Fold each of these.
Amino acid sequence: MAYASGKHSLAICDRCGFRYKYTQLQEEWNGFRVCPECFEPKHPQLEPVRHLADPEALRHPRPDVPPGVVAGAGVVRTIDANSMMSVTGDVIGSEFSQDAATGEIGTVTVVIS
């Protein structure tokens, strides 16, 4: 469908109500047709840009290992009962072998009245 150009038409500003030439009116972001004096561009805060979260960690990290150290062997922690201090090996861990281990937690006494 063809429309007329409106070069001889008059129109009323939706904001101030004054009469202007139809070709002078501008359309705003909210659909109003307003005169050049009343025209306001859309403020950027009305459509905020979506920001994704900043990456904080690597997906599959690969830490640096000093040469000659076997990684993945575990960290050996021993506690000296006399000094109550925790003694550890290096950060990566050291290899060890053990045939058997024993341990005990303690006793539990249940009193039913």
Amino acid sequence: MSEELKECPVCNSPYGYASGENSYTCPECGNQWELTASAGEEITNESASPQILDSNGNPLQDGDTVIVIKQLPVKGSSSPIKAGTKVKNIKLVEGDHDIACKIDGFGAMGLKSEFVRKA
């Protein structure tokens, strides 16, 4: 069975595969798009970088200051990050831990956006 591959309009990966009738998905960036039947134009349904939200549903951006809302254990450390800890100048990254930051006394680490709120 041979599937026709389409180039992703977001990352230009040549491996976009059919995921429905006139619908394609990119395995590299996760973008989904449709082809219109008339001209073969591509319409993007999902942005390349999904919006990252804090625990209250507020959108986060690079450089924001957030507050940890729950005591978080840290691997390799005897003390946890306490609730109420303010984290300045965050950077949004892709992955399970979608916030990269530096926390005083702990150093560089990744946090999940579900455990922080925007300050």
